[in-house]
Design a protein that fits this description.
By secondary structure, this protein is of the alpha/beta class. The protein has two domains: about 425 residues, Glycosidases (TIM Barrel), CATH 3.20.20.80; about 100 residues, Immunoglobulin-like, CATH 2.60.40. Helices cover about 30% and strands about 15% of the residues. Strands 6-5-4-3-2-1-8-7 form an eight-stranded parallel sheet. Strands 9-10-11-16-13-14 form a six-stranded antiparallel sheet. The protein is globular. Bound molecules: modified acarbose hexasaccharide.
Length: about 525
């Protein structure tokens, strides 16, 4: 539908055509694993994902410990020397960008070299090939450090007011793991497909339907949960395990070991929020928002219509409800997909790639849900499919001087992106509307001007936090009039409060510094390929 700017009737018709954005109801839902004040604590987090092996080498003495033939900094499929001590030494860098929770990939002791002597020779540098044994043990991968290194990292995180998210595996063991040799009946046979009984990539696939196996796995997770003061668990391959195991065994087990632990399910599903909902119903507090990631790639990285993002947000807020949507973990990329910066593809000018990336970051920090950064996001690191998306962190990253340079494999002047991430994390953390506020769509292209705008609002007896966020994905400037007054997705109190109100841009990405609404309508004009975060005075 063509936009007829200026006519309220047309605008009302268009808004009607958009369908009323989901009014952000906060109807009570099934109790989450975290409760009380912890829910707000987690809504306010900014998660930072690292592979300890690829981040910083704090102790070269452990580089070659553990499995032989697994340390080779020049081979992408083996260990490169990063470790827990290295991570511990860089907490000021991680905290400095505004990240508040550190998620490390698993630290379990890993299996021996896989496919030795072949071009595919590889080791569990990522931590997802645990060498489980029975009874389950707490062995930390020696190349990453010791149990005291892990405990010390967690203590230092807590000393910095930060949290630790432990990555766990209950779907499988590593290739050739001890427990697979001593208990072959604990594992499914070989089959292909997405069924929960089929091994993922040939990994020994546990038979959770067997009570003995379920008890072994839950005890294993409980032991790790008890042994370390963790704040959260990221559960790997959740969609490859029967939901009944999570709900009936694993969730109650780990919460008995450590109440109020935040439980995040990795269910790599992109068909929409209806596919994610069962994991919340099974007792997880959160899932990764892969459907939104696909939409962010389509809309921003590939310069498509913002209808994709608008539709995805309407889907997950509408399907999950606001309470669960606010705990969903949103991402631009991670260790399993090409980096967002690689998604525009060949032939796109680097300045354009940066504009698209910064738009994506603006969405990541203002949409409902917990933002997750993947190490290197903050310094514009490129990377293709696994394992290219797991390159080592560069040592120049740690200082602002170092980040001022130009390096192969990174956006020029990485400090520009680092400073934007730092600013966006601060804006989000300091404005309750963005981490616990309602959501109401104000504008989507609907086939017309490629602009997306929404309202976030939170008020209580102590404060009022009201924000309008606008993205212009056009290659030219664009102007839209947002009909706040008639938007039923916004509370009536807020609508009247915002009818005539001045807003100040917090993002500083080129939009007019202030805009003022009149008669319930807010006209916003944005330069090409930029966004604004307008905070009501
Ligand atoms: C690597 C190679 C494999 C090779 C293997 C030997 O080594 O990538 O090609 O066969 C770990 C390592 C990986 C390793 C695997 C297997 O183990 O990190 O390097 O593979 O050995 C989690 C972790 C992940 C980890 C594992 C295993 C699980 O995050 O790092 O991998 O513990 C599936 C799972 C998901 C899993 C992921 C790797 O594979 O569901 O839990 N991640 C489609 C499917 C998804 C699938 C995804 C990736 O592909 O729907 O189920 O995830 O394979 C979107 C589409 C999606 C599509 C994505 C990729 O693109 O809409 O449908 O997802 O646009």
């Amino acid at each position: 539908m063509k936009r007829i700017a200026g006519s309220l009737l047309a605008l009302t018709l268009v808004l009607a055509a958009c369908g009323t954005a989901p009014s952000a109801q906060s109807t009570p839902l099934a109790p989450q694993a975290v409760s009380g004040g912890n829910i707000d604590t987690w809504r306010r987090q900014v998660i930072y994902l690292t592979l300890p092996d690829r981040f910083a080498n704090g102790n070269t003495a452990n580089d070659n410990l553990g499995q032989p033939y697994c340390f080779d900094p020049n081979w992408p499929l083996k260990f490169h020397g990063g470790d827990l001590a290295g991570l511990r030494s860089k907490l000021s860098y991680i905290k400095g960008m505004g990240a508040t929770t550190l998620w490390t990939t698993p630290v379990y002791a890993q299996v021996p070299e896989v496919n030795p002597g072949t071009p595919g020779a590889s080791c569990g540098y990522h931590g997802y090939w645990p060498n489980f044994r029975n009874p389950g043990d707490l062995a930390v991968e020696p190349k990453l450090g010791t149990g005291s290194d892990l405990g010390g990292l967690i203590t230092d995180l807590h000393g910095n007011g930060m949290k630790y998210m432990m990555d766990m595996v209950a779907n499988h063991a590593g290739y050739g793991a001890s427990v697979a040799q001593t208990h072959p009946s604990w594992f499914h046979g070989n089959c292909t497909g997405d069924d929960v009984t089929c091994p993922l990539a040939g990994l020994p696939d546990f038979r959770q339907e067997d009570g003995t196996v379920a008890n072994y796995l839950t005890t294993l997770s409980k032991n790790w949960t008890s042994a370390y003061a963790i704040d959260a668990i990221r559960m790997d391959t959740a969609k490859h395990v029967p939901l009944g195991y999570w709900q009936g065994s694993w969730v109650p087990g780990v919460l008995a070991a450590r109440p109020n632990t935040f439980l995040l399910a990795e269910a790599f599903l992109t068909g929409g929020a209806s596919q994610l909902k069962p994991f919340y119903d099974a007792g997880f507090d959160s899932t990764f928002n892969f459907p939104l990631r696909n939409a962010l790639v389509s809309s921003f990285a590939r310069a498509g219509s913002l209808d994709a993002v608008a539709g995805s947000v309407q889907d997950y807020v509408g399907t999950l409800g606001l309470d669960r949507a606010l705990l969903t973990v949103n991402l631009l990329d991670n260790h399993d997909v090409p980096r967002f910066l690689n998604e525009p593809g060949y032939g796109v000018a680097e300045d354009e790639i940066r504009r698209r990336y910064h738009l994506g970051l603006g969405a990541l920090f203002t949409l409902p849900g917990i933002p997750q950064l993947y190490y290197g996001n903050e310094i514009g690191m490129y990377g293709g499919a696994d394992p290219d998306n797991r390159r080592d962190m560069p040592s120049w990253a740690w200082t602002s001087t170092g980040r001022g340079g130009t390096y192969s494999g990174f956006l020029p002047n990485p400090g520009l992106t680092y400073n934007l991430v730092q600013k966006l994390a601060g804006i989000r953390t300091n404005n309750p509307a963005l981490w616990k506020g309602s959501y109401a769509e104000l504008w989507r292209p609907n086939g017309g001007t490629n602009v997306f705008a929404f309202y976030r609002g939170y008020t209580d007896s102590t404060a009022a936090s009201r924000i309008v966020v606008v993205f212009n994905n056009n290659a030219a400037s664009a102007s839209v009039s947002l009909n706040i007054g008639a938007n039923t997705g916004i509370s009536s109190a807020d609508r009247s409060s915002l009818a005539s109100r001045t807003f100040d841009d917090q993002a500083g990405q080129g939009a007019p510094a202030t805009v003022t609404s009149s008669g319930g309508s807010l006209t916003v004009s944005l330069p090409a390929k930029t966004f604004a975060i307008y905070k009501a005075r």
